[in-house]
Amino acid sequence: MKRIGHLFETVASFGHLLQCHKKARQGTRKTPRVCAFAFRLEEELLSLRGELLSGAYRPRPYRYFQVRDPKRRTIAVADFRDRVVHHAVVGVLEPLYERRFIHDSYATRKGKGAHAAVSRAQGYLRREAWFLKTDIHKYFDSIRHEVLLGQLGRKVKDARLLELVSLILGNGGSGGIGLPIGNLTSQFFANVYLDGFDHWVKEKLKVKGYVRYMDDFVLFAGCKAQLRGYQEEVSGELSASLGLSLKPSATFINHRDNGLSFLGTRIFPGIVRLHPENARRASRKLALRHRALQSGTLSEECYLQSAGSYCAYFGAYGTYALRRDIFGLL
Prior knowledge:
The chain is an alpha+beta fold. Helix content is 55%, strand content 15%. It is built from 15 helices and eleven strands. It has a four-stranded antiparallel β-sheet, sandwiched between helices. A three-stranded antiparallel β-sheet has the order 9-10-11. A hairpin with a 3-residue loop joins β2 and β3. α2 packs across α5 and α5 runs parallel beside α10. The N and C termini lie far apart (55 Å).
C-alpha cells in the first residue's frame, strides 16, 4: 500500500477550514455557540489554524445525551470548533480511502447508503440460496485506538496528521478503546477499521457474495455447510486481528425462502418489504412531527421536508397502502 504524505498542510489551511466550517454548519441548529463562531468567523478560523500548526490544539470535552431508536444509545456531541476539525481531517483522508474501500461497503459513503446495500443484498439473494447474517458485538465501544492508528499509519505518511487523529481518538472512549457515537470522525474511522477485514473476506476467504453496512454484514453461499465454515473463520479473524467478536443473538444462517432481515427491511429474491417495527417507528415519528406542526413548535417548511423524507423512505419499499393509511390519518 502506497503511503501518502504532506496532508497536514491541507488540513490546517485557511481555505480548507473555511469550507469545513460550512459543512459543519449544515443541518445544525442555530445554537449560540454556532452563531458566535460564525460572527467571529475569520478570527475563529485563524485561531484554530494557529493552534493546529503550533501543536497547541486540544479538543474540548464532549456533551453526552441518550436516545432510544430503537435501543438506548449514548450520543456524543463535539464542540462546534472540534466539528470543524473533524470535517477537515475526514475531508483529506476520505478521498484516499475511497479508492481502497471495497465496492460492497455501503455505510457513510457518497453514492452508497442503506437503499443501495439492500438492493445489492437482494441481488446476491437471487443468486445464492443461503446467507449468514451477523453484526459485531458493541462495535464502536470495542475499536482499539492503537490498532486503528496502525492501520492509518500504513496509508498516511504524515506524523502531524496522525498525532491530530490520536488527539481526537483520545478525547473519547476509555483506556484507548472505543469511539463516541455521533461524530463524523467516528463513522469514518469505523469504516477504516473494518476495511482490512473486507479485503480479507473478498481476497483470502474468496467470498463473492458479501455486503457490509458499518458493523452489519451478510455473506451469501450456495450451501449451509460453506457458511458454517465462513462463520468460524470470520469469527477467528475478527478476534485475532481487531479484537472484535460477533454478536451471538444476531448471528444466524438461513435460507432465502425465509427472508433476510437487513437494515430495517425484509428481503426476498422477488420483493423487499419494510420491517414492521421500522414502519411503526417511522409512523410514530411522523405523527409527532405532525402534532408539533399543529401546536406551532415546528415550521411548515421543516414539516414538509420531514414528510418528504419519510415518503421517499417508505416509497422505496412498495408501501403505497401504508403511506395512504398514514397520511389519511394525519
